[in-house]
Amino acid sequence: MGEEIVMNIMRSLALAVIVTASASTLAQNGSSEWQSVVEAPAEGAEPLTMALVVNQDGNSIRIFKDENDIVRGSFTLGDESESLEERSCPTVRVDQLPPHPLVHLGGPCELDNPHHVRFTLGVINEDQVQSTMLWQLINGGGFRVWYHLKDRGYRETKFSLRRSMNALVGTLGAQVDVVP
Protein backbone atom coordinates (compact mmCIF):
# COMPACT_ATOMS: atom_id res chain seq x y z
CA MET A 1 0.00 0.00 0.00
CA GLY A 2 2.85 2.42 0.84
CA GLU A 3 4.47 1.75 -2.53
CA GLU A 4 1.24 2.70 -4.34
CA ILE A 5 1.04 6.02 -2.47
CA VAL A 6 4.65 6.83 -3.33
CA MET A 7 4.00 6.04 -7.02
CA ASN A 8 0.91 8.28 -7.05
CA ILE A 9 2.90 11.11 -5.46
CA MET A 10 5.69 10.65 -8.04
CA ARG A 11 3.16 10.73 -10.92
CA SER A 12 1.56 13.87 -9.48
CA LEU A 13 4.93 15.58 -9.15
CA ALA A 14 5.93 14.60 -12.69
CA LEU A 15 2.62 15.93 -14.05
CA ALA A 16 3.06 19.17 -12.09
CA VAL A 17 6.55 19.64 -13.58
CA ILE A 18 5.25 19.00 -17.12
CA VAL A 19 2.31 21.41 -16.72
CA THR A 20 4.54 24.11 -15.19
CA ALA A 21 7.14 23.71 -17.94
CA SER A 22 4.47 23.92 -20.65
CA ALA A 23 2.90 27.05 -19.15
CA SER A 24 6.32 28.64 -18.82
CA THR A 25 7.16 27.86 -22.44
CA LEU A 26 3.86 29.32 -23.66
CA ALA A 27 4.35 32.44 -21.56
CA GLN A 28 7.85 32.93 -22.95
CA ASN A 29 7.20 31.98 -26.57
CA GLY A 30 3.48 31.99 -27.31
CA SER A 31 2.69 35.67 -27.17
CA SER A 32 6.00 37.29 -28.13
CA GLU A 33 7.54 35.02 -30.74
CA TRP A 34 6.68 35.10 -34.44
CA GLN A 35 4.94 32.01 -35.74
CA SER A 36 3.93 30.75 -39.14
CA VAL A 37 0.23 29.84 -38.99
CA VAL A 38 -2.32 28.63 -41.51
CA GLU A 39 -5.72 30.31 -41.52
CA ALA A 40 -8.70 28.15 -42.38
CA PRO A 41 -9.93 29.15 -45.82
CA ALA A 42 -13.35 30.43 -46.74
CA GLU A 43 -15.33 27.99 -48.81
CA GLY A 44 -13.62 27.47 -52.16
CA ALA A 45 -10.48 29.41 -51.18
CA GLU A 46 -6.94 28.20 -50.58
CA PRO A 47 -5.56 28.10 -47.01
CA LEU A 48 -3.65 31.27 -46.13
CA THR A 49 -0.22 30.94 -44.53
CA MET A 50 0.79 33.97 -42.51
CA ALA A 51 3.45 35.20 -40.11
CA LEU A 52 1.87 36.21 -36.82
CA VAL A 53 3.06 37.82 -33.61
CA VAL A 54 0.94 38.74 -30.60
CA ASN A 55 2.44 40.89 -27.87
CA GLN A 56 1.71 40.86 -24.15
CA ASP A 57 -0.97 43.57 -24.63
CA GLY A 58 -2.87 41.31 -27.03
CA ASN A 59 -2.06 43.50 -30.06
CA SER A 60 -1.10 41.56 -33.16
CA ILE A 61 0.65 41.85 -36.50
CA ARG A 62 -0.12 39.47 -39.37
CA ILE A 63 1.83 39.37 -42.63
CA PHE A 64 0.83 37.26 -45.62
CA LYS A 65 1.16 36.94 -49.39
CA ASP A 66 -2.12 37.26 -51.28
CA GLU A 67 -3.14 35.49 -54.51
CA ASN A 68 -1.56 38.33 -56.57
CA ASP A 69 1.85 38.02 -54.83
CA ILE A 70 1.29 41.23 -52.88
CA VAL A 71 2.77 41.11 -49.37
CA ARG A 72 0.14 42.49 -47.05
CA GLY A 73 -0.12 42.98 -43.35
CA SER A 74 -2.52 43.96 -40.62
CA PHE A 75 -2.27 45.49 -37.18
CA THR A 76 -5.04 44.63 -34.73
CA LEU A 77 -5.68 46.08 -31.29
CA GLY A 78 -6.06 43.50 -28.54
CA ASP A 79 -8.45 45.66 -26.53
CA GLU A 80 -11.75 45.89 -28.40
CA SER A 81 -12.89 48.76 -26.19
CA GLU A 82 -10.30 50.95 -27.95
CA SER A 83 -10.77 52.36 -31.45
CA LEU A 84 -8.15 53.53 -33.91
CA GLU A 85 -8.48 57.08 -35.21
CA GLU A 86 -9.94 56.84 -38.72
CA ARG A 87 -7.76 59.53 -40.29
CA SER A 88 -4.41 58.41 -38.84
CA CYS A 89 -2.21 55.50 -39.94
CA PRO A 90 0.11 53.82 -37.45
CA THR A 91 3.86 54.33 -37.71
CA VAL A 92 6.38 51.50 -37.26
CA ARG A 93 10.00 51.74 -36.13
CA VAL A 94 12.35 48.75 -36.20
CA ASP A 95 15.20 48.98 -33.69
CA GLN A 96 16.73 52.49 -33.96
CA LEU A 97 16.12 52.83 -37.71
CA PRO A 98 13.96 55.61 -39.18
CA PRO A 99 10.19 55.14 -38.66
CA HIS A 100 7.84 54.16 -41.49
CA PRO A 101 4.14 55.04 -41.80
CA LEU A 102 2.00 52.05 -42.70
CA VAL A 103 0.65 52.44 -46.24
CA HIS A 104 -1.71 50.43 -48.41
CA LEU A 105 -0.73 50.15 -52.09
CA GLY A 106 1.08 53.48 -51.92
CA GLY A 107 -1.78 55.29 -50.21
CA PRO A 108 -2.92 55.55 -46.61
CA CYS A 109 -3.50 52.39 -44.62
CA GLU A 110 -7.05 51.04 -44.62
CA LEU A 111 -9.19 50.62 -41.53
CA ASP A 112 -11.35 47.50 -41.81
CA ASN A 113 -12.99 48.21 -38.48
CA PRO A 114 -12.15 50.40 -35.46
CA HIS A 115 -9.63 47.83 -34.16
CA HIS A 116 -7.96 46.62 -37.38
CA VAL A 117 -5.83 48.34 -40.03
CA ARG A 118 -4.45 46.84 -43.27
CA PHE A 119 -1.24 47.82 -45.04
CA THR A 120 1.01 46.69 -47.92
CA LEU A 121 4.70 45.84 -47.65
CA GLY A 122 5.58 45.10 -51.27
CA VAL A 123 4.96 43.10 -54.43
CA ILE A 124 6.79 39.89 -55.29
CA ASN A 125 8.14 40.03 -58.83
CA GLU A 126 10.26 37.19 -60.25
CA ASP A 127 10.91 35.76 -56.77
CA GLN A 128 12.06 39.11 -55.36
CA VAL A 129 10.34 41.75 -53.24
CA GLN A 130 11.86 45.16 -52.65
CA SER A 131 10.68 46.38 -49.27
CA THR A 132 12.77 48.23 -46.70
CA MET A 133 10.16 47.60 -44.03
CA LEU A 134 9.95 43.85 -44.72
CA TRP A 135 13.76 43.56 -44.81
CA GLN A 136 13.93 45.33 -41.42
CA LEU A 137 11.28 43.03 -39.93
CA ILE A 138 13.31 40.00 -41.04
CA ASN A 139 16.66 41.31 -39.80
CA GLY A 140 15.75 43.43 -36.78
CA GLY A 141 15.55 42.73 -33.07
CA GLY A 142 12.32 44.49 -32.12
CA PHE A 143 9.86 47.11 -33.26
CA ARG A 144 7.36 49.63 -32.00
CA VAL A 145 4.03 50.70 -33.40
CA TRP A 146 2.71 54.17 -32.65
CA TYR A 147 -1.00 54.62 -33.26
CA HIS A 148 -3.67 57.20 -32.53
CA LEU A 149 -6.75 56.16 -30.58
CA LYS A 150 -10.04 57.89 -31.21
CA ASP A 151 -10.45 60.65 -28.58
CA ARG A 152 -7.56 59.26 -26.49
CA GLY A 153 -4.32 60.42 -28.14
CA TYR A 154 -1.27 58.45 -29.19
CA ARG A 155 -0.23 55.07 -27.83
CA GLU A 156 2.76 52.83 -28.35
CA THR A 157 3.03 49.06 -28.38
CA LYS A 158 6.15 46.92 -28.70
CA PHE A 159 6.77 43.65 -30.51
CA SER A 160 9.70 41.28 -30.59
CA LEU A 161 11.18 40.16 -33.89
CA ARG A 162 12.26 36.85 -32.39
CA ARG A 163 11.84 34.12 -35.05
CA SER A 164 10.44 36.69 -37.53
CA MET A 165 12.84 35.49 -40.25
CA ASN A 166 11.59 31.90 -39.94
CA ALA A 167 7.94 32.92 -39.94
CA LEU A 168 8.28 35.35 -42.84
CA VAL A 169 10.33 32.94 -44.98
CA GLY A 170 7.66 30.30 -44.27
CA THR A 171 4.98 32.75 -45.37
CA LEU A 172 6.66 34.19 -48.47
CA GLY A 173 8.52 31.07 -49.59
CA ALA A 174 12.21 30.25 -49.32
CA GLN A 175 12.75 31.16 -52.99
CA VAL A 176 11.66 34.80 -52.44
CA ASP A 177 14.53 37.23 -51.94
CA VAL A 178 13.73 40.29 -49.79
CA VAL A 179 15.86 43.35 -50.59
CA PRO A 180 15.76 46.80 -48.95
Describe this structure in words.
This protein is α+β, with helices and mostly antiparallel strands. The chain is 26% helix and 39% strand. The chain is built from three helices and 14 strands. The strands form three sheets. Strands 1, 2, 3, 4, 9, 10, 11 and 14 form an eight-stranded mixed beta sheet that branches. Strand 5 (91-94) and strand 6 (100-101) form a beta hairpin. The chain starts with a helix and ends with a strand. Residues 5-30 have low confidence and may be disordered.
Q: Any descriptors?
A:
eight-stranded mixed sheet; globular; alpha+beta; 26% helix; 3 helices; four-stranded antiparallel sheet
Roughly what is the average pLDDT, rounded to an integer? 83
> In terms of per-residue confidence, which ranges show pLDDT below 50 for 5 or more consecutive residues?
5-30
Which band does the percent of strand residues land in?
Answer: 35-45%
Helix fraction by DSSP (H/I, runs of at least 4): 25-40%
Biggest sheet record: 8 strands, mixed
Count of helices?
3
Structural class of the secondary elements?
Answer: alpha+beta
- Note the overall shape: globular
Succession of helices and strands: HEEEEEEEEEEEHEEHE
**What is the straight-line distance between the termini?**
70 Å
Radius of gyration: 20 Å
Count every beta strand, where a strand is a DSSP E run of 2 or more residues: 14
